[in-house]
């Protein structure tokens, strides 16, 4: 029976995906409650008939048992309203999400008819078509360079890693994202040779069964080479979606033929702004600054791509930098030798060499920067010339601090602070030039907490916008 009194819950939900609403619909159905859930812009509305107390209690209990957490979930506002609840049914599309709590219970409970049944496919989010998620990963007890960690037992997370509550909630959410964390366990540090590593919880049937077998064998983790990922970073109570190859986050509308500009415009639309300045700090696509105004979107500044051979040639033709190279070669001949043998190295590959890191990548430099826990970095040169960014001065500055005996993790930390300061300086100049005061942050480099914190501390009054629903990079 319907009634004029109802409970209305408005749930902030930073995604246009339907699966969370679908889980609520399924719980409504199995609770036999007069209720409905509807999807709005950045929110869900849940209407519950409050006249059937037994059905409400069933709904509450089933929510506790079966409703998963989602990284897109925000605040919930609950109120009593004078309204009639017209029961409706919502159907969700299928998504590449993990097994839900009900599926996991059926799979792992020895008394279940579906115990260890690897054919289980989740149909508990009111999805019309079930989706069998293919998993081509190989899960192994042996580590190979570049592997991520599969968390076998969630109760061991705090034993193995230094993690925040927000990181644990994200890790165990229905989306099962990959996150980078600090390794706490000394044995794991020795095995991997790392202080930081990407981890995730099982998100497929194959991963779940591999984890169960490993746990029964007394293993606390497995390793795998991640191919497809939904990668997030949890920094200062913000969840940033760094990369999404699973299409769980919002799908970009086609607003521009250029990929970077298209992402920029989609995030501006999400933020509800038509005039904006943006920065894209991307590992793969380089560093660019953008502006959109009156329907026109343009790249207003591009740092240009770094080629080590060209930078070294410029340094040899500059009197001061040539002297620096000579002194550096005397102190670190192996570094200069590797430079000369690899003239095609990118910026972060080159920085990895100077800092004498194990890997040759952005991630190597980023991980090293996280080892420094002090305040205030070195002043790395971030100058611009008429033809673009002065990579010669930037690289020379790093080499000078290395020669002066600065610790590698301190230099790495300073590099990311410098990139943040340079971005803030350019955006302030563009603000004055274009008379635009809305700022959008994009790019995979924002996974680095040093860079993100620098932007948030030095640029906070300008309210830089990070997307809540879109990945920050391709």
Structure write-up:
- By secondary structure, this protein is α+β, with helices and mostly antiparallel strands.
- It has 3 domains: 5-82, Alpha-Beta Plaits; 101-235, no CATH class; 252-474, Nucleotidyltransferase, domain 5, CATH 3.30.420.40.
- It contains 16 helices and 18 strands.
- The chain has helices at residues 19-31, 53-66, 101-108, 157-160, 165-171, 186-192, 205-216, 259-271, 308-316, 319-331, 333-341, 347-354, 362-369, 391-403, 408-434, 449-458; strands spanning 5-13, 35-40, 43-49, 73-82, 148-151, 161-162, 179-183, 196-200, 221-224, 230-235, 238-244, 276-282, 286-293, 296-302, 384-385, 388-389, 439-442, 465-466.
- Strands 6-7-8-5-9 form a 5-stranded mixed beta sheet. Strands 14-13-12-17-18 form a 5-stranded mixed beta sheet, sandwiched between helices.
- Strand 2 (35-40) and strand 3 form a beta hairpin.
- Helix 1 crosses helix 2 and helix 15 packs across helix 16.
- It is globular and about 85 Å long.
Can you describe this structure in just a few lines?
The chain has helices spanning 19-31, 53-66, 101-108, 157-160, 165-171, 186-192, 205-216, 259-271, 308-316, 319-331, 333-341, 347-354, 362-369, 391-403, 408-434, 449-458, and strands at residues 5-13, 35-40, 43-49, 73-82, 148-151, 161-162, 179-183, 196-200, 221-224, 230-235, 238-244, 276-282, 286-293, 296-302, 384-385, 388-389, 439-442, 465-466. With 474 residues, the chain is α+β, with helices and mostly antiparallel strands. Strand 17 (439-442), helix 16 (449-458) and strand 18 (465-466) form a beta-alpha-beta unit.
């Amino acid at each position: 029976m319907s009634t004029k009194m109802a409970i209305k819950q408005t749930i902030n939900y930073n995604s246009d995906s339907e699966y969370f609403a679908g889980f609520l619909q399924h719980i409504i159905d199995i609770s036999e409650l007069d209720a409905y859930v509807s999807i709005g812009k950045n929110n869900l509305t849940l209407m519950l008939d409050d006249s059937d107390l037994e059905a409400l209690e069933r709904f509450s209990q089933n929510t506790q048992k079966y409703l998963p957490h989602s990284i897109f979930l925000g605040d919930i506002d609950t109120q009593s309203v004078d309204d009639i609840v017209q029961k409706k049914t919502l159907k969700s599309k299928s998504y590449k999400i993990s097994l839900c709590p009900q599926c996991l219970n059926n799979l792992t409970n020895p008394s279940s008819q579906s115990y260890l049944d690897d054919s289980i496919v989740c149909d508990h989010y009111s999805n019309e078509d079930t989706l069998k998620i293919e998993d081509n990963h190989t899960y192994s007890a042996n580590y190979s360079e570049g592997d991520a960690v599969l968390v076998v037992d969630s109760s061991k997370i705090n034993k193995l890693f230094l993690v925040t509550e927000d990181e644990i909630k994200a890790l165990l959410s229905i989306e099962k994202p990959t996150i980078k964390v600090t390794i706490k366990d000394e044995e794991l540090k020795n095995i991997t040779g790392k202080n930081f590593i990407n981890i995730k919880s099982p998100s497929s049937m194959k991963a779940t069964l591999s984890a169960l077998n490993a746990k029964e064998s007394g293993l606390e983790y497995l390793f795998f080479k991640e191919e497809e990922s939904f990668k997030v970073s949890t920094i200062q109570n913000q969840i940033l979606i760094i990369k999404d190859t699973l299409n769980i986050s919002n799908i970009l509308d086609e607003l521009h033929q250029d990929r970077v500009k298209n992402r920029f415009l989609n995030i501006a639309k999400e933020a509800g702004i038509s005039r904006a300045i943006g920065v894209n700090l991307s590992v793969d696509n380089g560093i660019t600054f953008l502006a959109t105004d009156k329907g026109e979107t343009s790249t207003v500044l591009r740092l240009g791509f770094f080629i080590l051979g060209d930078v070294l040639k410029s340094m040899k033709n500059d009197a001061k930098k040539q002297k620096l190279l000579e002194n550096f070669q005397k102190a670190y001949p192996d570094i200069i030798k590797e430079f000369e043998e690899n003239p095609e190295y990118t910026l972060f590959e080159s920085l990895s060499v100077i800092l004498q890191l194990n890997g040759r990548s952005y991630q190597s430099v980023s991980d090293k920067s996280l080892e420094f826990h002090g305040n205030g970095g070195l002043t790395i040169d971030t100058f611009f010339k008429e033809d673009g960014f002065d990579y010669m001065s930037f690289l020379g500055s790093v080499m000078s601090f290395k020669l002066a005996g600065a610790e590698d993790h301190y230099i790495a930390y300073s590099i990311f602070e410098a990139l943040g300061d340079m971005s803030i300086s350019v955006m302030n100049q563009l603000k004055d030039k274009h008379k635009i005061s809305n700022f959008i942050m994009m790019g995979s480099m924002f996974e680095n907490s040093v860079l993100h914190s620098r932007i948030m501390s030095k640029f906070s009054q300008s309210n830089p916008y990070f997307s809540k629903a879109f990945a920050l990079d391709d």
